[in-house]
Amino acid sequence: MQLNRFVVEVRGGVLLFFNCTTELDDGWWWGFNASPPQHGPFANSDEAVADASCEMGRFKLVRWDDATIRRKNHEELRPTGHIVVIDTDGALFVKTGERPACEGDKTPTEQLIGELEAEGIVVRSGEMRPNGRGELKPVYVLASEYANDIEAAKRAIEGKLRTYSRTSRTRPGPRWLRRHLR
Q1: Does residue 99 fall inside a structural domain?
Q2: Cross-strand bridge partners of residue 60
Q3: For 59-76, what is each residue's pLDDT tens digit?
Q4: How far apart are CA 124 and CA 114, in angstroms?
Q5: Which domain holds residue 70?
Q6: Over pLDDT 70: what percentage of the chain?
Q7: Nearest residue to 5 via CA among 72, 67, 71, 55
């Protein structure tokens, strides 16, 4: 049996699922689990799968789509016999504590705080406090219109969190997969 082959998307010089920069052109690429993607670019994942399946013999096609990735509802794979399509729906995946691969991109938490600020739900207090790692971070407080109505603030924040949860991503998969495709 052949080693597993992984199909991933590159946009703007970033391997979206792995949150790492690359010299690869935009498009869909495939590679083995022990090496970076080396075959591509293809216009879509189906073309990449067709190319990856050449000379592979029998294989099982596995798709990790947006919903599967968020729920971490994917099967553990044997190291052989699979072609795995990792479709992030064009979104960059950033794990908790990880910085986005592209300068100027925001972590999901930074993005959420920015949206809450833009909606006037929270404001920066001007105060800085150390986080759990000892880094100084700005303190956010409820905007004055919500200061005396905590229920209204909760509804406003929950509305933003529902939108945020549909767009945020978590990254599944064995650690070795991320390590080997960097």
Answers
A1: no
A2: 82
A3: 999 998 867 766 665 667
A4: 10
A5: 5-94+170-180
A6: 70
A7: 55
